[in-house]
Amino acid sequence: MNKDVTTISLFAFSTALMVYQLTFAAVYGSDDRQDVVTVGNQQVKAAAKSTAIMIANTLISERPNATIDLDFQPLSTTFGSNVCTDQKFHNQISAGVACTGFLIGQDLMVTAGHCMINVGEVKQGLTPFCTEFSWLFDFQNNTQGQASIKGLSKDRLYRCQKVLYAKNTTTYNSATQKFDFDDDFAIIQLDRPVPNRSPLKLAGPLAAIGQGVSSIGYPNGIPMKYMNNGKVLDQPNSKYFRTTLDMFEGNSGGPIFNAAFDVIGIEVRGFPADFIWSPQRQCNVVNKCNGMAQSCQLADEKESAGEHAFPANLIRERAAEVGLSL
Length: 326
Fold this sequence. Notes:
The protein is mainly beta. The chain has four helices and 24 strands.
């Protein structure tokens, strides 16, 4: 069903996004997140150019000469996260509430459904997440480990013009008496074509369980990271599969790659929590599990640990429903 955009404060639906955003996760084995600038693989660098971060418009200030400034804060203080100072990337700047998306056409992007709609579906319409957030390309650290947020070219910033198809639904399972995960994807049209960047290729059906996977995204809204050394754990049903990629809030909507660097799915949620409170230290530390997504420092009593991904073949099928051929 199409929904009209109503007048809602940014705080209200930013809070809603934080509540509904399900990519709470952990580090599985060693923490494999790294800045893209440190990666020698040219396929990674090419894919990074086609990946963007979703940021609140209230954090963007337009300046003279077609430039913008971004009001980002250190991760250690963003939204009161209070990350311990010895934790990886604790001092990097963060956009706070964020999602990841990637190009599938010159003006088409894919992200997670919950990044565009809290619940339900929308076709050929607008949502508050579409109108009140923008997409920024090339938010990356340089070789000194820093990302610029002042005097950026306005050409790097794109608006969401329309939600072509977004869905975020669950199905009640009477046998288990719980809600099963269903569709979680969004296909959006940007306000103009993105030049000099190649759309990412959607793969076919998921390959064998145990295959290696990698991803690109913005964990906790910090500058772009490449996550590798993950693997597919299983595929509980046709609507999602689980991986051991090191994901956090902000990775939602990010592409998950196979060895050929085709997209086999998008990150949509994870379990258990990404950070846990240390009473002794009075700050938050990263939650860690073993390489099989077991023995987590803080476990989830209801869900198996791991990162859930919505399969790329289903994105292609849903796109066809609104006349898109991917």
